[in-house]
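Request: When convenient, would you put together a sequence paired with its structure tokens?
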Amino acid sequence: MTDAELIARYDGRVPRYTSYPTAPHFTPAVGPDRYAAWLGQLPAGLPLSLYLHVPFCERLCLYCGCNTGVVRHAAPRRAYAALLERELRLVAGRVGRRRVSHVHWGGGTPTTLPADCLTDVMALIRDLFDLTPDAEIAIELDPTALPADRLAALAAMGVTRVSLGVQDLDPAVQAAIGRIQSYEVTEACAQAVRGIGVSAINLDLIYGLPLQTEQSVAETARRALRLEAGRVAVFGYAHVPWMKRHQALIPEATLPGPQARFDQRAAIGRVLEEEGGYLPVGLDHYARPDDALAEAAQGRRLHRSFQGYTTDAAPALIGIGASAIGCLPQGYVQNATAVPDYAAAIRAGHAATARGIALSADDRLRRAVIEQVMCDLRADLPDLARAHQADPAPLLAAAASLASFERDGLVRRDGGLVQVTEIGRPFVRNVAAVFDAYLNKNDTRPRHAQAV
């Protein structure tokens, strides 16, 4: 079967499966009181991860799907940092002093916070929690917005990994998405963070942007190789103007079609693998063979969260900040998205939880299946059912619908073992969706991004 035929058959709208159940199924039934109870029920000694969300940027890129906005003045940024500190204290008051193995600052652009705010929040985390000796402290950076005092703050915070947003290096594409960022600026940022001792660098690239071509994205990937990052994430642009109104400023006529997107993804992958020596990880990540992410993938220790693919195995992720999502053994929680709503809750002295979902036994089983499919490109259904003390029959029944995938060479099945082939890697979300009990295949609303 040709690529065009595979795209026509399988390129539907399916979740990215950074959680299961996915965020559209969160409801207000899980609120501040339930979240507080869940925190209080965490077993003693259970290690945590922290995610801190900063919803501010220096500019609003037209392609962006994140919860962020442009804030020019220092006062609201300082006020927001104070809210992060108050929420951290609220959480610590519920869970006590815990080990923390991973801290991730995301956004938005976390370095829009003043330098002293960044260091103060990080110092508070160390005061409230016990960071493990090998704890990863990661932060997302905009290479065009890293003044000298923020660079010094990263060093003082003990940052161990940075993620640089590159997206695309073609000037015409950058102009079309409102993100002017030369290669030289990006390279200077990489050199600057290495200069303060941060050797672990991630890059983000995007395909499917306006005016991109197979040749142009391959050239961006080649130039990105010179930055010598340990990891590269290659995301397909999700055009969702019904959710992110600023994306409507991108004329749809300038966007590549499904076949062009598929070819662009493949072109970036060829450059990274054949010219850069990177190994493919899951759906959309690449890592050098000696990087911990590649090692975790090869050892089947890879995990998937709202930050994408990760080596972090902590059983509880605490989300801090507006719109931040947390994952506890009992279920998922999400803070209020709007900063005023988030601020009102935190200032009132309680959690800002606006919605979430409690996990059933079936949810936990299917989440394990979907995570294995997304991370390992395989899942042993009877084995996973046994681990969850469950009947494998519903999973095997769902897997029966993979017959067409198998005929088309996207998966192989051996009894209850499902394996995604290399041909099937671009369609792994479709394979995972087979096991999604919440996904309504007849729902025509555009709730998710295209699979390819």
